[in-house]
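Cross-posted from the bioinformatics board.
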Amino acid sequence: MGGFPVLKSVAVANRLFLHRAVRHLVGLGVEQFIDIGSGIPTMGNTHQVADEVASGAKVVYVDNEPVAVAHSRYLLDKHGDPARHAVIQADMRDPDGLWDRARDAGVIDFARPVAVLLVAVLHIQQPGRDGTDIGPRAVARYRELLRSGSYLAISHVTTEGVPPAFREKLLEVKDLYDVSSNPVVWREQSEIRALLGDFELVPPGMTWTPLWHPEESGPNAPELEFASPEESVIWAGVGRKP
Ligand SMILES: C[S@@+](CC[C@H](N)C(=O)[O-])C[C@H]1O[C@@H](n2cnc3c(N)ncnc32)[C@H](O)[C@@H]1O
């Protein structure tokens, strides 16, 4: 998102949402996470945040990029516990295959609730065989695969409700990405909510990233340079499977 004035804060706010979602979910009794599209490890990774607030939390990192997987593997080799942490290379567009691989990793107990994290992943276009975006269809399958009492956390760029100058910038950025090998899709807020299907929204519901349980920020959370939460441009929420 080159040329975006508060780009760093957008990325940091997204990351802090992930941290708070993990802390909050641990508070709700969830201690198993499948972090899909986990990316290259950066500030506060899921297993590190979970370990701060829970003993024995289990995390499977998933990415389809070999470089991201290699970095996560390196991190876990140094600072992970093989009985509780794993990384797999898998594609979110193949939910059943990904689920099998996660099961084979042997750290998650699928008889108990699991939280799937899809943080800043679904605004990257997910082309199916015919080239159309199958991200929402794949998410629907994850909702089916999760057992009752499980959770799904999502964050996603939106152009809706953002200040006009930011909206224009987002559309410019989209044009740049769309001629690259990583086209993007900016969704309306209702479309992002729809990704959670019939899951019950965990309070406060869908919000801008900085507004989702800000009280659960860690003591070392960096300051964000937003004039208003809308400048974070990422809409986020967590749902619970009934
Ligand atoms: C913007 S990064 C987000 C990283 C991290 N979740 C965060 O919020 O900081 C998106 C990640 O999703 C991964 N990704 C994109 N499409 C994917 C797919 N179909 N299957 C698995 N991972 C995917 C990319 O490789 C990248 O590492």
